[in-house]
Design goal:
By secondary structure, this protein is of the alpha/beta class. The chain has helices at residues 48-64, 105-114, 118-122, 131-141, 143-148, 155-164, 171-174, 189-195, 235-242, 270-281, 295-305, 312-320, 360-384, 402-412, 425-437, 443-450, 461-489; strands at 3-10, 14-20, 26-33, 37-40, 43-46, 70-78, 84-86, 96-97, 151-153, 169-170, 205-206, 211-214, 228-230, 233-234, 249-255, 259-262, 288-291, 330-332, 350-352, 389-395, 416-419, 453-457. It folds into two domains: 3-235, Nucleotidyltransferase, domain 5 (2-Layer Sandwich); 244-421 and 460-491, 2-Layer Sandwich (Nucleotidyltransferase, domain 5).
Length: 497
């Protein structure tokens, strides 16, 4: 009987499951989508039970592709961070507030005022992206639900409980709570007291490859009872692992609904390097870049503005014929606010330079260029902080666009590498399960064998020089309108009474 490792990633729109063999090769995979609830500007929720349904569906599809195989270990990663409040039986007391939800801006502002040194305390600046501000909002606005809450979990911990009956939080997700010390070794008592929450609201914390439990019998997932389940990680950590990004110099760009940069900063062996990756995704503002609306901007443009014109593929072909600079059009890609590097909840998307000669193809290219400029902003800050970046390996849905990859290479002035047969974080999760089970005793050898570069998009130096001018305009445009975002936010919605 063939022994396989199961890796599962819960993204912003869908769950992906992969079965990987002992050499790191993908045997089969499955996918299942779920809805997102956009309640109002900045309020974004998902139903945790939908994650469980999609988990079971994706795993079933993957298992159907490998009949008779034995799963020797399971690890899960997910979008992060998320506020998931569950009762003593593990049932959600409300829908989850996902990473995109920014309703707790006032609470984040209170944290910043009361703890000017919060970055030093927790490793992260005060922002509604993190869980601390969300919990403070939750306690203040939904006290009845808070009284029902036994634990605050993250997505892997929620699904692991469904599988094993045991509560836990992986270390990478714990670092995104903004309730832990900067080195993620202890709780920050003063911040927790201000938020109004105690340690008893959080279960055991452990590193990604630690065994959390074994699959229960008669489980809806149809995974065999007794199968080991490991704590898992944040999607970015696992995606970086799939890309072989474990040493300084090579950076992973995980691009889908949003874009995240993962930049290992130190470590002479894999364990140290993976800790560096976990710290990178932990939200330290010089190590994490995230454009909330990268792939989302493309999808929004197609669905709401250009849907009557042509398909995304056709638009991409047409945009390739548009000259760099999109005939003067600049796009700010802050469709749901922005995290690193501007950390601005009220920021919004902007098209600047529209004219009667503007075409859909120009708008499409401007979106690709705008997200590339936002990526460059993060890279610029990272380099100034001393982080070594020689090559970016792009993974995720956005990496499928050759035009986008070339624009990024030209904007950044560095190669964009594309992996052969890249699936994403779920593969990294399977590697974690292999490390936890001892099947992968030398992960570097496994990565050397399994990580293959399909192509590299090399920068055009002339276009890069030109894009430097456009990048300066992009930066200047945001600085010119950033105060208007905040002024506009207070009157954005007309109130009848």
């Amino acid at each position: 009987m063939q022994e396989l490792l199961l890796g599962v990633d819960v993204g912003t729109t869908a769950t992906k499951a992969v079965l990987v063999d002992s050499t790191g090769h993908i045997i089969s995979q499955g996918r299942s989508e779920y809805p997102t609830k956009y309640l109002q500007a900045g309020w974004v929720e998902q139903d945790p039970n939908e994650w469980w349904r999609s988990f079971c569906e994706a795993v079933a599809i993957a298992q159907n592709g490998a009949p008779g195989a034995k799963i020797s270990g399971v690890a899960i990663s997910a979008q992060a961070p998320t506020l998931i409040a569950v009762d003593a039986s593990g049932e959600p007391v409300r829908n989850a507030m996902i990473w995109m939800d920014r309703r707790a801006q006032l609470e984040a502002d209170e944290l910043a005022r009361n703890f000017p040194n919060i970055s030093q305390l927790t490793g992260n600046r005060a922002d509604p992206y993190y869980v601390a501000a969300k919990i403070k909002w939750f306690i203040k606005n939904e006290p009845a639900n808070y009284q029902k809450t036994k634990y605050f979990l993250q997505i892997p911990g929620f699904l692991n409980f469904k599988l094993t009956g045991k509560f836990g939080i992986d270390a990478a997700h714990a670092s995104l709570l903004q309730l832990r010390t900067a080195d993620n070794s202890n709780w920050t008592d003063e911040v927790m007291k201000f938020v109004g929450v105690g340690e008893d609201k959080f279960p055991q914390i452990a590193n990604s490859i630690v065994l959390q439990g074994e699959v229960l019998s008669n489980n809806q997932s149809k995974i065999a009872a007794g199968t080991p389940v490991y704590f898992g990680s944040v999607d970015g950590c696992s995606a970086a692992l799939e890309a072989g990004v474990i040493d300084p110099g090579v950076v992973a760009e995980m691009t889908g609904t949003s874009t995240v940069l993962l930049m290992p900063t130190d470590g002479n062996n894999f364990n140290d390097a993976f800790v560096a990756i976990e710290h990178a995704i932990a939200g330290r503002q010089l190590r994490l870049g995230a454009m909330v609306a990268s792939g989302a901007s493309v999808a929004w443009l197609q669905q709401n503005i250009l849907k009557a014109e042509s398909s995304v593929e056709e638009l991409s072909n047409q945009a390739a014929e548009v000259s760099p600079g999109s005939e003067g059009l600049i796009f700010l890609p802050y469709m749901m606010g922005e995290r690193s590097p501007i950390w601005h909840t009220n920021a919004r998307g902007v098209f600047f330079g529209l004219s009667l000669t503007t075409t859909p193809a120009m708008m499409f290219r401007a979106v690709l260029e705008g997200t590339a400029f936002a990526l460059a902003h993060n890279v610029e800050i990272a380099k100034k902080s001393g982080i070594k970046i020689d090559e970016i390996r792009s993974i995720g849905g956005g990496s499928k666009s050759g035009l986008w990859n070339q624009i990024k290479a030209d904007v950044l002035g560095m190669p964009i590498a594309i992996l052969q047969d890249s699936v994403g974080a779920a593969v990294g999760d399977a590697y974690l399960a292999g490390m936890g089970s001892g099947l992968f005793k030398d992960i570097r050898s496994t990565l050397k064998e399994s990580v293959k570069i399909e192509s590299r998009f090399q920068p055009n130096n002339k276009v890069h020089t030109y894009y430097q001018e456009r990048y300066a305009s992009f930066r200047s445009l945001y600085e010119s309108v950033k105060d208007e975002f905040d002024k506009s936010a207070t009157t954005a919605t007309y109130k009848v009474n």
